[in-house]
Amino acid sequence: MSRSTGDEAGSRRRIPEATVVRLPVYERVLSGLLRSGATTVSSEQLAELARVNAAKVRKDLSLLGSFGTRGTGYDAQFLISQIDRALGVDRDWPVAIVGIGNLGRALANSEGFNSRGFRITGLYDVSPEVIGTVVGAVTVRDLARLAEDPCPAIGVVATPQGAAQEVTDVLTRAGVRSILNFAPQVLAVGPDVMLRYVDLSIELQVMSFYQSRRYAEEGDVTRLRSVGLSPTREP
Amino acid sequence: MSRSTGDEAGSRRRIPEATVVRLPVYERVLSGLLRSGATTVSSEQLAELARVNAAKVRKDLSLLGSFGTRGTGYDAQFLISQIDRALGVDRDWPVAIVGIGNLGRALANSEGFNSRGFRITGLYDVSPEVIGTVVGAVTVRDLARLAEDPCPAIGVVATPQGAAQEVTDVLTRAGVRSILNFAPQVLAVGPDVMLRYVDLSIELQVMSFYQSRRYAEEGDVTRLRSVGLSPTREP
């Protein structure tokens, strides 16, 4: 895996996490536009489709060093390549998934885990019924063999809650320094390991927050106020 | 489903989305602490476990009207009930999932979709092999029958990309006004429908962003700098 120069690190340092999280959304919208035949995109169009306000889109893209042309907008293909470079997905990221239940299978088969720099190089489980089966193009191996295989850049924990810490320990002992945890379990790792959590129900809870608010507003004004319900469109 | 008063709507309006997204994380950490026997928690402890800085935790919780006691901290159980009320998960949210493949099954069986106000009331698919099977305690029904069933508060799209828009149309025609979309597809809905996206690979991309930066830093200083790698701990 190639390493960047100090210059790249410098330019990356200035991108705040709130922007980093929006970049994959822009990328998806831009890819959709390209597929539909568009070659350029305005910040208003990108904002509308990504459900972000246009000023924020322009600010985010300016952080990548990208500036649209008045009246023409942004070159969609060029913008995608800039986003990919900023996200680091112009590299090769070997990914291992541990826990090949429904979620592990869904991830292994998903587009997001098999494109744009990510490549599933290992699937692991402890169940004899699962070990040896093929998911996508990868044969599930015994978790006990993980340390024998080439070390992945990113380890994904898709096990039940009770197994998550043990699996994380296996991954970090094997040298994995980036862990993405889907199990509903707070994990302990050393200071040199980057750990991020995905909670599949967070958006469900965010939705109930806004829906509650909407019910309250409707009760208040006695009729549906359908404006401004999409949270990310609000000021 | 009960509706709130105008007062509640007023108090909810002030919570920014960035805080809303962190509340489920605090809730999970607090539940973990309760299970381990703790009854109070300091903002520093909560910050450490939620990987957010302590000042932000205090700010977020003050938005709920919750203030810790110096030297004692917050009452964990009380804080959970306040978070639940703010998120609206102290109500009953019937949820329908469409697309009972690996992802739909994983969601249907997940803790997050079966607790804290959420209740799966319908599972739908179009495949004759899947219709009639039981997942969790719910029998999968034909999507064509969805309109005959009681209308869920939230519809979850867990289909392949190509079917997502059609399924969304079926849901909204049946009266569903909140759609949570897991398919990698930008969807069109009317202005009275709240639509949110979940991209399972966003955190993978955020991770590659920070990992790239780390490689760059290491290349720069020729040895591992293990400080400040966890992005949410940075200033």
Question: What share of the residues of chain A lie within helices?
Answer: 40-55%
Strand content of chain A: 15-25%
Largest interface: A-B, 89 and 89 residues
**Uncertain segments of chain A of ≥5 residues (pLDDT<50)?**
1-13, 220-235
Largest sheet of chain A: 7 strands, mixed
Order of helices and strands of chain A: HHEHHEHEHEEEEHEEH
Which class best fits the helix and strand makeup of chain A?
alpha/beta
Overall pLDDT confidence of chain A: 83
Rg from alpha-carbon coordinates of chain A:
21 Å
- How many individual β-strands of chain A? 9
Summary tags:
seven-stranded mixed beta sheet; disordered C terminus; 8 helices; 9 strands; alpha/beta; disordered N terminus; 235 residues; two-stranded antiparallel sheet; globular; homodimer
What would you note in describing this structure?
- The structure is a homodimer of 235-residue chains.
- Chain A has 235 residues and is an alpha/beta fold.
- Helices cover 40% and strands 16% of the residues of chain A.
- Chain A is built from 8 helices and 9 strands.
- The first copy, chain A, has a 7-stranded mixed β-sheet with strand order 5-6-4-3-7-8-9. In chain A, strands 1-2 form a two-stranded antiparallel ribbon.
- In chain A, strand 7, helix 7 (164-173) and strand 8 (178-181) form a beta-alpha-beta unit.
- The radius of gyration of chain A is 21 Å and the shape is globular.
- The two termini of chain A are 42 Å apart.
- The model of chain A is unreliable at 1-13 and 220-235 (pLDDT under 50).
- The interface between A and B is large, with 89 and 89 residues.
